[in-house]
Amino acid sequence: MISFKGAQYPKDVTLFAVFFYVRYGVSYRDLEEIMAERGVSVDHTTLNLWVTWYSGAIAEAARHRKGPCDRSWKMDETYIKVKGTWVYLYRAADKYGKILDFMLPERRNKPAAARFFARLLEVNGLPRKVVIDKSGANTAGIKAIDKMLAGFGRPISIEMVRRKYLNNIAEQDHRFIKRRTRPMLGFKSFVSAPATLDGIEVAHMIRKGQITPGVCPFRQFAELAA
Description:
The protein is α/β, with parallel strands linked by helices. The protein has eight helices and five strands; from the N terminus they run αααβββαβαβααα. The chain folds into two domains: 11-66 and 189-223, no CATH class; 72-174, 2-Layer Sandwich (Nucleotidyltransferase, domain 5), CATH 3.30.420.10.
């Protein structure tokens, strides 16, 4: 449960603002006006803080509450600008396009790939197959985790397929993230960037019906904070 103790505004008001920002292509100043039209006077800097404070915790709840996924995985990265520098957002989906997980490390290397793959296993279990591009870092990271699993007695290695064209599902899924982040013109810090991206990914998962299909999207988002 996410604590809203001491918050100036009701929980639903705060969560509505966070959801509206991560779901739709609005700026914080636009959202400030939208909230004012609904009788809520809140500064755009406060809205920024709400997204930074709450999105990460909501995303963590979504990771554990999402529906089951297929055991054939697609793992890929896309570029995100943080502090004027392009960095990699790691993302993974199953063969049907359901989101498995996401992570924004500061570097694209073997430790980062291994960390992300370990996160995938933590919630999604063991895959039957993992499709990646020809990134040496991703290959090395997955092999490192596979070796660790073998040390714990797993007799069969994870099948790894290095073919870029087979990763089309994961690459196409980046478009939603790009559409939402493009108007932002990059992030100013590694504090706000992961939190905001977490919220955007959760909104995307809700759109795909991975949380509670048939329930109002905002209500699904709010229930993740319960």
